Write the structure tokens for this entry.
Amino acid sequence: MASKTENQKAWLFVLPVVLLVAFNALIPLMTVVNYSVQETFGDNVFFWEGVKWYEQVLNSERFHDSLLRQLAFTGTILIIEIPLGIAIALTMPRKGPWVPVCLVLMALPLLIPWNVVGAMWNIFALPDIGLLGRTINALGIEYNFTQQPVAAWMTTVLMDVWHWTSLVVLLAYAGLCAIPDAYYQAAKIDGAGSWAVFRYIQLPKMKRVLTIAILLRFMDSFMIYTEPFVLTGGGPGNTTTFLSIDLVKVALGQFDLGPAAAMSLIYFLIVLLVCWVFYTLMMRNEEV
Amino acid sequence: MARIGLHNVRHSYVPNPKADEDWALKHMDVEWQDGGAYALLGPSGCGKTTLLNIISGLLSPSEGTVTFDGTDVTSTPPDHRNIAQVFQFPVVYDTMTVYDNLAFPLRNRGVKEGAVDARVREIATMLDLTSTLEQRASGLTADGKQKISLGRGLVRSDVNVIMFDEPLTVIDPHLKWVLRSKLKELHQRVGATMIYVTHDQTEALTFADQVVVMHEGAVVQVGTPVDLFERPQHTFVGHFIGSPGMNVLPGHIDGSKIMLGSSTVGKVPKKLEIPEHSEKLEIGVRPEFVSFSSRGVPVRVTKVSDAGRFQIVETEHENNTIRLLVPEGKPVPSENAKLAFDPKYTQVYVDGWAVS
């Protein structure tokens, strides 16, 4: 039997990565875990509290409400952005001088910093001076997102759709461009209509990029903070207070580090769980 | 099933073709008989796929007309031409089962489910796909997927022509042979016109009754595999078909003798007509028809390679290389020898084209 040569020097090659991951993920995460099971009154004095904060968060109506609002928001924007993104990608030209023009136009919203997007839409939608707000009011519809919950919601959703549909478009477009011509030719010969081409060629071939698009949009929208914070500040009342906004209120506004840490971890586990379930479902029939 | 005619077809991918090179297809004027098995053979970039796409209707030719049974179909779209095409890389509808893949062309044409089922099962039996009918098509191997592509063409009973665009490119070598015999068998059974595009001479010669050899956008010879081997009409055919290819040697005519340098290789046939203004005269003879002899062209043996059942011998004669095949086990002279060319298979070419 051949004996394995042992070479401990190999660890040196792994070390930088271990350090990097430790400092940017493990240590911060463990700090949060540490806070979530203890109580502190400052001066680095800690008292063990066990799962008390978790119970408190999970039983609080406030957390339930923000979680529900968050789920409703993420669901709404996914239902709008994914089909809309696919539809736009399908109408984009595959070759010719318009391709770069379309790509640049599509990429523009993605290049704008999040807080600027919030500020832009805030001014754009103001009922007295904003173009959108004034127009809607001029049409005879009473609209004021700083006072009406429905208007605040619609404005937030519209802003997110404007900001992020492009990402879905670009991913779907990349998926469409990767389909070899032979598929379209075969479909033509087989007498397939445009719906059949979409259903049996384009959609299955876009499956991987769409999985990524949905995952990215899910995670980003589930953790959305800056844009609604700048646009509505979570109001009117609490109607647009999503999980992140609530979390910041608890952690920094009230300085309740224990409950905030427990909430962060629950939040993180929800994102992880949903992503895992979704990815497993999507990839269940894939060949390796 | 149909007779396919291409009349004065030319095609160019550039908008205003002027120079000769602008034409992907220079000039095509051929007629393919109903139920024939044809191969389009030529090196990459010779216009084979262009020609195929013109027949299927995926491309519209710049000039000329395409006819099926005498009817002009030049502007008919592919789905109305009743053709089938198998592409180089297998095209299957991933999310469907094998059964649904085969049923797809029929369902698109509004065929009743009962008729679809009967036809799909019949074709699946023909292609040995019955055991995989309920599987997802994406899980099959490359040859299974190619069979599905072929099956989607065969299910339609009204197919005019089935076209194959290098269908065995992604198939493992040991399966290529199996699939090729399957094709041949299907052709006999179904009787549809089949056009098979390839750059592999073995595939072309084993599949087809008639081989169309293409070179730089033009047809250089149409003939049976035997014709192409024994009577190449162009030096390109001589080079391209056969392994090793034909010996093409610069020659000249001296009275009644065909001369290779200072040696006589044969007599000029009585009716040999050398066109005027010809530039170059060549002698073509396949290595199979050259042998060592006591009299003939003096050569020096430079290289012997063993190719299994025969040896490929390279000899040199006044700066020309002449190859010949010697059966396994037969002695090869070590240095100086003389070669005889079989007069029946020695051909004179003027500017590349055979004269007789």
